[in-house]
Write a structure and sequence with these properties.
- With 175 residues, the protein is mainly β.
- The protein has one domain: Immunoglobulin-like (Sandwich), CATH 2.60.40.1890.
- It has two helices and ten strands, in the order ααββββββββββ.
- It has helices at 2-21, 23-27, and strands at 58-65, 74-81, 88-94, 98-108, 114-118, 122-124, 129-132, 138-144, 153-160, 165-173.
- Strands 1, 2, 3, 4, 5, 6, 7, 8, 9 and 10 form a ten-stranded mixed sheet that branches.
């Protein structure tokens, strides 16, 4: 059962990478395109020029999933707490160790099958918390530039719609 889940997760990761590398598939709008169900056509808000003010979020339980050799995608899981009176709308992620990163949602369909979907934003509510984990929203790092070793630290930078950033240094841990 665990092996089947790993295979399915890898297939989903490869599908997401394919969609990012061939935008025409997601934007063709043709009814014969099975990728249209993933709603990849929603444009991502572009951050404004970065301000000197960093995001006012508290980071706890940050971790990056260690993956076996040959696997080039991983996830960032973290709890973000917002002490402020306004929600923080995250719109992008990046890491020097990955070719690109995506904000993702993990969902279950009516048949109980789990799948992932790219989302343009994730919101940390005012005076609230957003938990990024394997069962819900998370950050997917695609195209790792080298294998990650358990115990090392991976830097991930989150950006909001105004261009403010939050740098997270997350330990790499085995699942």
């Amino acid at each position: 059962m665990s092996h089947l889940f790993t295979v399915r997760a890898r297939i989903r990761s490869l599908l997401a990478a394919l969609l990012l590398s061939v935008p025409a598939l997601a934007q063709s709008g043709g009814s014969s395109n099975p990728m249209n169900s993933m709603d990849m056509t929603t444009p991502r808000p572009k951050p404004a020029l970065a301000s000197a003010t960093p995001l006012n979020l508290k980071v706890t339980q940050a971790r990056v999933v260690a993956v076996p050799p040959g696997i080039t995608d991983t996830s960032l899981f973290v709890t973000l707490s917002n002490p402020g009176a306004r929600p923080v709308v995250l719109s992008a992620a990046r890491s020097p160790l990955a070719a690109h990163a995506m904000l993702m949602l993990t969902m279950r369909d009516a048949q109980g099958l789990t799948g992932m979907k790219v989302t343009p934003t994730l919101t940390v509510p005012a005076h609230g918390t957003l938990v990024l984990d394997d069962l819900g929203p998370h950050v997917m790092m695609m195209g790792l530039k080298r294998p990650l070793k358990p115990g090392e630290t991976m830097t991930v930078i989150l950006s909001d719609v105004a261009g403010h950033t939050l740098t997270i240094r997350a330990p790499v841990r085995k699942p």
